[in-house]
Automatic annotation (TrEMBL):
<dbReference type="InterPro" id="IPR011013">
    <property type="entry name" value="Gal_mutarotase_sf_dom"/>
</dbReference>
<dbReference type="GO" id="GO:0030246">
    <property type="term" value="F:carbohydrate binding"/>
</dbReference>
<dbReference type="GO" id="GO:0005975">
    <property type="term" value="P:carbohydrate metabolic process"/>
</dbReference>
<keyword id="KW-0808">Transferase</keyword>
<dbReference type="InterPro" id="IPR008928">
    <property type="entry name" value="6-hairpin_glycosidase_sf"/>
</dbReference>
<feature type="region of interest" description="Disordered">
    <location>
        <begin position="1"/>
        <end position="22"/>
    </location>
</feature>
<dbReference type="InterPro" id="IPR037018">
    <property type="entry name" value="GH65_N"/>
</dbReference>
<feature type="domain" description="Glycosyl hydrolase 94 catalytic">
    <location>
        <begin position="336"/>
        <end position="743"/>
    </location>
</feature>
<protein>
    <submittedName>
        <fullName>Glycosyl transferase family 36</fullName>
    </submittedName>
</protein>
<dbReference type="Pfam" id="PF06165">
    <property type="entry name" value="GH94_b-supersand"/>
</dbReference>
<dbReference type="InterPro" id="IPR012341">
    <property type="entry name" value="6hp_glycosidase-like_sf"/>
</dbReference>
<dbReference type="GO" id="GO:0016757">
    <property type="term" value="F:glycosyltransferase activity"/>
</dbReference>
<keyword id="KW-0328">Glycosyltransferase</keyword>
<dbReference type="InterPro" id="IPR052047">
    <property type="entry name" value="GH94_Enzymes"/>
</dbReference>
<dbReference type="InterPro" id="IPR033432">
    <property type="entry name" value="GH94_catalytic"/>
</dbReference>
<feature type="domain" description="Glycosyl hydrolase 94 supersandwich">
    <location>
        <begin position="32"/>
        <end position="312"/>
    </location>
</feature>
<feature type="compositionally biased region" description="Low complexity">
    <location>
        <begin position="1"/>
        <end position="16"/>
    </location>
</feature>
Length: 820
């Protein structure tokens, strides 16, 4: 195998040798938690806590923000991007020793200058626990969002380690926003005049709201005349001895979260406000006997204004202040994730692959399903809303465990299609509006998502559901929606039959190639062909022979034209500009080769075998790197106004030559489909976060989830990753691992068992739930093969081939034994 660190055909300056950095953390023995033992990580390392409406990011130091349904329109708490110190503000529990005056945070931040005796953060599924020891007190702080109520819980246990009685003060506080996060940034001096915070004695809680709510569909001087539709309640389960609703009063002048004046003096102002910057801050006092532990919780809950929290069935207010009840809610969160992760299991000779496929990859896929690209440390949730292409890709993980949620997702997203078959590019939940950007690929993802849902569920009733169009007219069936989407893309082609690039395709930064309507996307031609072919079994099942024949003709034509005009000798051209000039040719100085047109030439089935081999070999030889495959090479060093934003990106970063993991995953898929098993699996392994983050001080981001990209050798910060968590890489790496490496290949008719594994694996076991049945697979590889099923038994019976129709078996569990 070639050394990917410095391929001879793509000379680069090798990065200086970097000694291993400190091990900031590690996976637990069962991989269910990532345990951070040094809080001074290269970047804040995040987790998520959420249910279907209420969500929050939570960092390893208590940072992050919370929102209800929309991170732009209904943000609850503040987080300042690019804040110094990092990761501020957050959700803090501070403890003060009343005798000595010493105070500290249970999450390390913001009192980071203090010397802690112990720090440990455990990021799990839907919860984060931080343990600190300082000043003779152990604090255990668990953040989570219950499955059944729109609230977040900060569950606390304090234990005396000093052997003497302690008089302690507890301060729970977080900075509030309550409303439109974008408006808060650009109009805070005015927006702050509509804040209402009052202490409700009978609830022992601050009741917080805002009398004005900006829900503009665009920036405008027009002022909406509506109030924020919610009350936010913040309470402590301990008796409240003081409170503050004013950030200025609680923090004090020329201070920060690290040294609030009220904590330092021990005196709360009991300030209720009708204007000003809001904070929810509560104080309580307690005595901790020698060696004793005390349990309590801070809770932040949100209800509609027309709902009385005192009568609210879902909340049961006193239960939210009962730690025993809260512990049951935390147990329900754990049980939910036990069930979710129990749908997939793998035990292979590769520990990193097991860790990702069993826990962190499906977990990250669940995060992307609910957060899209819209609510993270790198995605502020302020501008783009929910992307259509993301909506129809992110179902790939959730459809295995919760197909009913995917069904609802598909029906909702299809509402943003227009009658001509085109779609909006993105939309916002609260305002139900979005933007039509004329990205050429966006409509193609509709059929992709629907067919994947049907492959998993065989729920053909979905196709007959009526869904309206965004621009009016009569509602149409889901089946009609997807036919229109593909027909629209077939109509949006040039005279010679290639799809028009328009304002870009999957690569958003190729935005100046076809603004005049003449530029063409070669990748788009391959992806359109793939979309057509993916629908062929469905058309046959529906008996739609006319559409089937018409699309077969279109598929064949796409094959003819791409191979006629887009083959460059060793690989495929990426696109053609409005003036006809090619993009991605060996004749160019920069941007000679792009990954997507090579991989999808194979995935689509349009590349003849010799050309497919050459395209993938060229990609691997020229763009292979230790962490994956570059998106293009060489990176652009000069701005090219006819290319677009790609040439303005820093060389080696993002779309300009980075190892773009989403696209790199498609190289793995193409390699496996092409029979290049060893190479495909090796690149897959390189991309796994436990492997790609080996130089963690350079890598920087979380080593337990995929990042959007890793900087390539074309930049001096080679190996630095960015935009973690919210990336389409998550679902593609999950399904490539599950479907193509382990070999569970779903289809409309059932499932095929077709593993693609390293020849060195002697065996492996895997499980998967499919259409109500648990498939328990054991693969034997006595002859050191990497693909090709020689024999398969199901529940002890030898079967012909490698296909299974689960409906033909009465048993709830199918034991499958395969020999390669």
């Amino acid at each position: 195998m070639n050394d990917l660190s410095a391929p001879s055909a793509a000379p680069t300056t090798a990065p200086a040798a970097t000694p291993p950095g400190p091990a900031y953390g590690h996976f637990s023995a069962d991989s269910r938690e990532y345990i951070i033992t040094d809080p001074r990580t290269p970047r804040p390392w995040f987790n998520y806590m959420w249910n279907e409406q209420y969500a929050g990011l939570i960092s390893h130091t208590g940072g992050g923000f919370s929102f209800l349904e929309s991170p732009r329109d209904n943000r609850l708490t503040r987080m300042r991007y690019n804040c110094l110190p990092w990761d501020r503000p957050g959700r803090y529990i501070m403890v003060k020793d009343a005798e000595t005056g010493q105070y500290w945070s249970l999450s390390w931040a913001p009192t980071i200058e203090l010397k802690y005796d112990r720090y440990e953060c455990r990021h799990g599924q839907g919860y984060t626990t931080i343990v600190t020891e300082i000043n003779g007190v152990r604090g255990e702080l668990t953040y989570f969002v219950p499955t059944d109520v729109n609230a977040e819980v900060w569950r606390v246990k304090l234990t005396d380690l000093s052997g003497r009685a302690r008089q302690l003060e507890v301060y729970a506080f977080t900075e509030l926003m309550m409303g439109n996060a974008l408006n808060d940034i650009i109009n805070q001096p005015n927006d702050k005049h509509f804040t209402d915070i009052h202490f409700q004695e009978d609830l022992q809680a601050l009741e917080c709201t805002r009398r004005y709510w900006v829900l503009n569909k665009k920036v405008s001087v027009a002022q909406p005349n509506i109030g924020w539709d919610y009350h936010l309640y913040f309470t402590l389960s301990l008796p409240v001895t003081g409170f503050d609703g004013s950030l200025d009063k609680f923090i004090g002048r020329w201070r920060s979260e690290a040294n609030p004046e009220c904590v330092e003096t021990g005196r709360m102002h009991n300030t209720e406000i009708t204007a000003g910057d809001p904070v929810a801050a509560l104080q309580s006092k307690l005595t901790l006997q020698a060696g004793e532990s005390v349990d309590f919780a801070a809770v932040m809950a949100v209800v509609k204004k027309d709902e009385d929290v005192r009568q609210h069935a879902a909340f049961r207010w006193e239960e939210l202040r009962d730690t025993a009840v809260l512990d049951k809610k935390l147990a329900a969160v754990r049980a939910y994730w036990d069930d979710y992760l129990g749908h997939i299991r793998a035990q292979t000779p590769d520990a990193a692959l097991n860790t990702m496929l069993n826990v962190w990859n499906p977990y990250q896929a669940a995060v992307t399903f609910d957060m899209a690209r819209n609510s993270g440390y790198y995605h502020g949730g302020l501008l783009f809303g929910n992307g259509i292409r993301d909506q129809f890709q992110d179902i790939l993980g959730m459809v295995i465990t919760h197909p009913e949620r995917v069904r609802a997702r598909l029906l909702n997203a299809l509402r943003f299609q227009l009658q001509d078959g085109s779609t909006l590019h993105n939309f916002f939940k609260f305002t139900n509006n979005g933007e039509k950007t004329n990205h050429s690929d966006t409509p193609l993802w509709l059929s992709f998502g629907v067919v994947e849902y049907l492959n998993e569920t065989a729920d053909y009733s979905l196709l007959d559901e009526l869904v309206p169009f965004y621009d009016g007219g009569e509602p149409a069936t889901v089946y009609d929606h997807i036919v229109r989407s593909l027909d629209f893309c077939l109509s949006a082609t040039t005279e010679r039959g290639l799809p028009k690039m328009m304002n870009g395709d999957w690569n958003d930064t190729l935005d100046q190639i076809g603004p005049l309507g003449k530029g063409e996307t070669v990748w788009g031609a391959f992806f359109l062909a793939y979309g057509l072919r993916k629908c062929f079994p469905l058309l046959e099942k529906r008996g739609d022979t006319a559409t089937r024949q018409r699309w077969q003709t279109a598929y064949d034509k796409l094959g003819e034209v791409t191979n006629s005009v887009a083959w460059d000798g060793e690989w495929y051209i990426r696109a053609f500009k409005d003036n006809g000039d090619p993009v991605g040719s060996n004749a160019h100085k920069e941007g000679k080769i792009f990954i997507n047109s090579q991989t999808w030439s194979v995935i689509s089935g349009l590349a003849p075998e010799e050309r497919g081999n050459s395209a993938l070999n060229s990609t691997y030889e020229l763009m292979g790197r230790p962490n994956g495959i570059q998106i293009c090479w060489p990176s652009f060093t000069e701005v090219d106004e006819t290319m677009g934003l790609i040439s303005r990106c820093v060389p080696g970063k993002k779309e300009n030559g980075a190892i773009f993991n989403h696209a790199s995953s498609w190289f793995v898929l193409a390699s496996l489909l092409n029979g290049d098993v060893e190479r495909g699996v090796e690149v897959y392994r390189r991309m796994l976060p436990p492997n790609s983050s080996a130089r963690i001080d350079r890598y920087e981001v979380e080593p337990y989830v995929f990042a959007e990209y890793v900087t390539s050798p074309d930049h001096e910060t080679e190996g630095q990753a960015s935009h973690s968590w919210l990336t389409g890489t998550a679902v593609w790496m999950l399904r490539i691992g599950l479907d193509y490496i382990l070999g569970f290949r779903t289809s409309l008719e059932g499932i095929s068992i077709d593993p693609h594994i390293p020849a060195a694996w002697p065996s492996f076991t895997a499980e998967r739930v499919f259409r109500g049945k648990r498939l328990k697979l054991t693969v034997h590889n006595p002859h050191g093969r990497n693909q090709g099923v020689r024999e398969m038994r199901v529940n002890g019976q030898l079967v012909a081939g490698n296909f299974i129709d689960p409906a033909s078996y009465a048993a709830a569990e199918l034991v499958i034994e395969v020999t390669l």
